[in-house]
Amino acid sequence: MARCEARTLAGAPCKAAVAGGARFCRWHDPTAEGRERHRAESVKGGKSKAYGTLPAGGPLSASADVAALNLATPAGLVGLLAASLAALARLPFDVRVSNSIGQVATAQRGILEASDLEQRLTALEARAATGPALVRRCR
């Protein structure tokens, strides 16, 4: 099978196969048609043929519930992530939506765990500062 005659940016030969009798692959085709095809494919951006486009939703900050959150606190961040999960759940099922839900849920779980540990530590510190000292005697 014939290979492209072009070189990569690193100077190595391009390993792409070429179509019947052509000298260059679709990415290195120097003809006007090849450059136009490359430009058109680059403009597509995130519009994958496999998944299509997702419907756009409004910004989360437009929601009164989200606007009232204090994002400097764990509770505020958990609320923002809960609103994000709710917005993602309204989208059609898609691999990208599923991945996003997993990432947001993981972030939310981490904040909840850290917040819980912080609350428990604060309670223990308060108890140690005000309560009688517990001394264990060794024999």
What is this structure, in a nutshell?
This protein has helices at 32-43, 64-67, 74-89, 95-130.
Report on the structure:
- There is one protein chain.
- This protein has two domains: 1-43, no CATH class; 60-130.
- It contains four helices and no strands.
- It is elongated, with a radius of gyration of 28 Å.
- By secondary structure, the chain is mostly helical.
- Helices cover 49% and strands 0% of the residues.
- Helix 3 runs antiparallel to helix 4 (95-130).
- It has helices at residues 32-43, 64-67, 74-89, 95-130.
Average of the residue pLDDT scores:
83
Q: Count every beta strand, where a strand is a DSSP E run of 2 or more residues.
A: 0
Outline: elongated
Percent of residues in beta strands: under 5%
**Number of structural domains:** 2
- What is the subunit organization of this protein? single chain
* Biggest beta sheet summary: none
Number of helices: 4
- Output the helix-strand order: HHHH
The secondary-structure class comes to: mainly alpha
Distance between the termini: 83 Å
| Residues in helices, as a percent range | 40-55%
Question: Which consecutive residue ranges, at least 5 long each, have pLDDT under 50?
Answer: none
Mind telling me the C-alpha Rg?
Answer: 28 Å
